[in-house]
Amino acid sequence: MPARTVSVTRHCAITILPVVIHILQRSVWRSLILPAPYRRTGLHPSTAHRILNDLVIGRFVDRPEAGSYRLGMRLLELGNLVKARLDVRDAAIGPMRELHKLTHQPVNLSVRQGDEIVYIERTYSERSGMQVVRAVGGRAPLHLTSVGKLFLAFDDPQRVRAYATRTGLAGHTRNSITDLPRLERELSQVRQTATARDDEELELGVRCFAAGIFDDQSSLVAGLSVSAPADRLEESWLERVRATAAQISLALGHRR
Description:
This protein is α+β, with helices and mostly antiparallel strands. It is 48% helix and 21% strand. The strands form two sheets. It has a six-stranded antiparallel beta sheet. The protein has a three-stranded antiparallel beta sheet with strand order 1-3-2. β4 and β5 form a beta hairpin. The chain is elongated. 29% of the residues are buried. The model is unreliable at 3-14 (pLDDT under 50).
């Protein structure tokens, strides 16, 4: 694409973005009626109409009747995703610190994103004796992590098999689970205990315990885990991880 064309395209996108924001903001409390967008944005009617049509196609705006527009369901869906992410972090940070005081090991908060978990919060100190390899924002495969196993265990069996096909269950260490029958047995045990383990499957020398965090709809929204050097992970911590995850779930409105 010629440089001038790219420049013009970028300029148009930058010019139109404030208009889109204006249209969405004006639609918050009531429907937006044509020709209001033309007058308030200064756009040519055909340009404003094209932008509105694109927003309708993306479900950011609904058109209940000809010439009338209001906010669409896609914005609600995105808002709920942001709300869930912020709420779980806010609810978790205090209990995570208390769990860290008990174990003196890294305490992790993770969510699922596609075929991976993403670390969204962590409490740790130099006293843990363990180098933190995956910082906040880091990712790891579901089947190699304790939190990832929780998400797979609460998924449909067909979706777990599809995950195995997509990823090939690639391993990172000699302890990694790399075949589907073994993974399915592991997930069955996770469902029975409502906890999961990573026994040096992601990194040699590091083991983890995890328990699930549930929202007010009883949906698994995150996982809480403690990671430690393999010879320092104490079995007695597992119940504390479970109790801390339950405490966070309660703060999110979960009721058993």
